[in-house]
Amino acid sequence: MTELPALIAAFTTMFIIMDPPGLVPVFIALTQGMSAEQRRAIAVRACIVAGVLMILFLFVGEAVLGFIGISMDAFRIAGGILLFLTALDMLFQRRQARRADNAAEGQAEHQDDPSVFPLALPLIVGPGAITTIILLAGNATSAADFGAIAGVLMAVLLITFLAFLVAPTIERALGKTGLNIVTRVLGMLLAALAVQFVLDGLRGFGIGG
């Protein structure tokens, strides 16, 4: 897992799942009318909470699976299916609509501070991200591997934080059409990665060589 190709694959997967460009319009909507300082504080809190959640899932997620009797190969297959459905949502724009709905609900309940809900959970650390973190942890065989995965998670989270800071600029630069194109491209890449997860799980059961 510490090899460069594996790290690049892990980074790509997490980047696609967390989708920092796709979070930009939601962040803008949740912080509309706030000052630059307030937006920065919300971005910091959201990313700190999301980071803590990711590290928890990285180190105890697989143990929870073992406790309830689910094999890692079975979880790879289920996770791949879930990621494929997420990819379909991205390709057909259902994901953005759902995020907007979740953001609206969260804003109604937490008008002053949306950093924990809905930003950190479930927008940054959603079901797809949790699934991917546990799958990556299942491939780790040493402390160095876990450290490398944690580094990848923090790198993607840092990009998300930077996207929040420059959200207004990104919105103006890409426009609605640009954000839609980026989301669809990422969705296609995620679909291919999801199929790979399923194939890896099937091989674990001796299916497909």
TrEMBL record:
This is UPF0056 membrane protein. It is a multi-pass membrane protein. It holds the Pfam family MarC. The chain crosses the membrane at residues 6-30, 42-68, 74-92, 119-140, 146-167, 179-199. The keyword Hydrolase does not apply. Belongs to the UPF0056 (MarC) family. It comes from Yoonia vestfoldensis SKA53. Coiled coil: none annotated. GO terms for cellular component: plasma membrane. NCBIfam families: NAAT family transporter. It is found in: Cell membrane. It comes from the Bacteria. Keywords: Cell membrane, Membrane, Transmembrane, Transmembrane helix.
